[in-house]
Amino acid sequence: MINLKLLKENPEIIRQAVKNRSENLDLDEIIELDKLRRTGITKIQNLKKERNEISEKVGKLKQQGKNPQELMEKARDLSNTTKDSEKKQREIEDRFTKAVQWIPNIPHESVPIGKGSEENQFIRGLKEPPKSDFHVLTHWEIAEALDILDIKRAPKISGSRFILYKGLGAKLERALINFFLDLHTKKHGYIEIFPPVLNPTHCLYGTGQLPKLEDDMYKCRDDDFYLSPTAEVPLTNIHRDEIIPEKKLPICYAAYTPCFRREAGSYGKDVRGIKRVHQFNKVELVKYTKPENGYEDFEKLLSDAEEATKLLGLPYRIKVLCTSDMTFASSKTYDIEIYAAGMKEWLEVSSVSIYEQYQARRANIRYRKNEGDVDFVYTMNGSGLATPRVFIAILENYQTKHGQIKIPEVLRSYMDGQEFIG
RNA sequence: GGAGAGGUGUCCGAGCGGCCUAAGGAGCACGAUUGGAAAUCGUGUAUUUAUCGAAAGGUGGAUCGUGGGUUCAAAUCCCACCCUCUCCGCCA
């Protein structure tokens, strides 16, 4: 949630942000609603004040053994008017709360203003994809040849866009997860978490997936749960409704979880292989920090994720997303992309975002400064990394001309020392 | 799923219709004492929101699991829901 004071004091900032993000939003309606809401609050508070004063008098008189009939009647009338007003007020507040959820975050000033992915800016990494001196098979071709993915049978179990890892494929997947977790917990100092991935509605509002991404998630029919689309949801909600002492910040969590996405609206796109699937594995990094350290910690989070790609020896590049390409709750987002030599495509393996106080406001996560003041924390997160695309990149970039896959050195200890698949 | 007990401030814990801006204790912060510390004593110790103010701050409202209700008045009474614990049943 944005700072609601902006609605009253500086709506132009919001208007500009909405425009830069190419979002469609009737801000004037929300501003009007806010005004209506505030006058309503003032009115009700005055009524209550009067009622409280009378009640107090009544109490005193009764203790003196009197029966202040008239005062009681007056108070009853006041009470009834108040209740009527409150009913109306509740409706307004409801509408307001819902509407406010649709206001996106304000982009950071360093974010390029742009309308689409062409306007994302290259930050660092490879400018050109590396060349290979033989014909590189796509991951689905070589995976089938080596029998490490069962692409034909996965649909029998769950339908299209699901992955069935098999044999050394399954082992490689597990190796990746362990490698990522070890890297971030042992070397980068994150605390490992293994959270539940069925999360209730309010958690998804907290992190900003709802209301906008309703159609992109799986919802349980009989219970109020969504299958978490990312560990960002449980990890950020760990400290919901808390006031964290300043000395405990920053808090850094790393978690492996499966992630579930409906991929609605992508029918017919990326249907081959395992690039776009409904269930995938990811190690997610989440940090809670003090505002003044926010952007410094954010850069560090990016480099923590980047290091995973580096250690795997995969060709990568990093971009900063322009205003229209960022997710709705983000102030600034970097994407790490790795090159897949078989598909001849750059694949997004990590999206690193800072939300400033946007999520913290929604989820009510605050910290107490050493001096005693309370303020919202900054939250940020990034994949470190998402496995299917890393898996693709290993199959396509570590391929030999004899149709084998060389296992990246950092993974070998997780693969019983094995050097090759095939 | 059934039966029972309970959810109060940072924590423990009292309160069971008006004086609750929540007793008492612990913790924490500051001060006194001390050569220094412990102990002791003193002082302070929530959040949120509306409004006025440049700000410091002032004036109100709200908050005792959540949401309704009764009442002039609710932490306290009633209803529903959520969570925790104990026992029973069922089940990986």
What would you note in describing this structure?
The chain is α+β, with helices and mostly antiparallel strands. Helix content is 40%, strand content 20%. The chain is built from 13 helices and 15 strands. It has helices at 5-9, 11-20, 27-63, 69-100, 139-146, 154-158, 168-187, 201-207, 232-237, 294-311, 358-363, 387-397, 409-412, and strands at residues 121-125, 191-193, 198-199, 226-227, 242-245, 251-260, 279-289, 316-320, 332-340, 345-356, 365-368, 374-376, 378-386, 405-406, 420-421. The strands form 4 sheets. An 8-stranded mixed β-sheet has the order 1-8-9-10-13-7-6-2. The chain has a 3-stranded mixed β-sheet with strand order 5-11-12. The radius of gyration is 27 Å and the shape is elongated. The structure holds one RNA strand of 92 nucleotides.
Short structural summary:
The protein is α+β, with helices and mostly antiparallel strands.
Strand and helix map with partners:
Layout (H helix, E strand, L loop, with lengths): L4 H5 L1 H10 L6 H37 L5 H32 L20 E5 L13 H8 L7 H5 L9 H20 L3 E3 L4 E2 L1 H7 L18 E2 L4 H6 L4 E4 L5 E10 L18 E11 L4 H18 L4 E5 L11 E9 L4 E12 L1 H6 L1 E4 L5 E3 L1 E9 H11 L7 E2 L2 H4 L7 E2 L1
Parallel strand pairs: 2-6, 5-11
Antiparallel strand pairs: 1-8, 3-4, 6-7, 7-13, 8-9, 9-10, 10-13, 11-12, 14-15
Helix pairs in contact: 3-4, 7-12
The protein binds one RNA strand of 92 nucleotides through helix 3 and helix 4.
